[in-house]
Amino acid sequence: MKKLLVVLFGIICPLGAAAQSLEGAWERYYTATNGDQLKSVVIFSNGYQVLTNYNAKTGAFIDCNGGTWHLDQETITEEVEFDSQRPTRIGTEVSFKVSITNTTLTKLEGNIQFTKIDDGTPGALQGAWLMSGRIKNGETQERDTTLPRKTMKILSGTRFQWIAYNTATKQFMGTGGGSYTTVDGKYTENIEFFSKDNSRVGASLNFDYKLMNGDWHHSGKSSKGDPIYEIWSLRK
């Protein structure tokens, strides 16, 4: 697979410390050439990550990409599973050296700096999840998570994002995300971007949730107001 080298610069951490510090969410604000204020958010879960750019004021979606990642000393290697703007990158490896502090992640090229949002807490659902089923009219409809067509949700301690994509066709179907909370069995999403419909930016959606045999059971009403009951399984 084609390998692209990007260098990040800061303070080099030992393997364990860097891995621990990377998991969670990071953000960056910057100004586009047209003057728009933009925001980047990257979420690192255990083995999976997503990076998204959107308008910080309007929530207008720009692009996102992500996939798997692992750390070897100070080098992270990612295998791209989805890329909304550059599908030819899907299936390729991207390697970059990382150095971090407790609060920042800095990329030397371009002097780009991200600030830590959280370290995977306090939310109860940190990790990468695949939709593995639905309950409809009292019947469970299972979904094969090994197929190329996936709906994945990645959560840190305060941030969430779902992505629908197909690794075989390299098709990107959509994404949405923002902040979330888990309190007393209630899961609340606060939408900051939604690739298909900007009018949903600013909405808050409330759901019931529970963890059963390691799966996340998620019920309530969708952003369209339709009743849903979804089952999500952690990616291995």
Main features:
8-stranded antiparallel β-barrel, Lipocalin, 1 helix, 9-stranded mixed beta sheet, 2 domains, mainly beta, 236 residues, 3% helix
Walk me through the structure:
This protein is mainly beta. The chain folds into two domains: 3-118, Lipocalin (Beta Barrel); 127-234, Uncharacterised protein PF14869 family, DUF4488 (Lipocalin), CATH 2.40.128. It has one helix and 18 strands. Strand 13 and strand 14 form a beta hairpin. The longest helix is centred in the first third of the chain and has 8 residues, at 15-22. It is globular, with a radius of gyration of 18 Å. It starts with a strand and ends with a strand. The model is unreliable at 1-20 (pLDDT under 50).
**What is the ordering of alpha helices and beta strands?**
EHEEEEEEEEEEEEEEEEE
Low-confidence stretches: 1-20
Coarse morphology = globular
The tally of structural domains comes to: 2
Rounded mean pLDDT is 89
Number of helices: 1
Neighbour order of strands in the largest sheet: 1-7-6-5-4-3-2-9-8
Biggest pleated sheet: 9 strands, mixed
Q: How much of the residues is beta strand, in percent? A: over 45%
Number of strands: 18
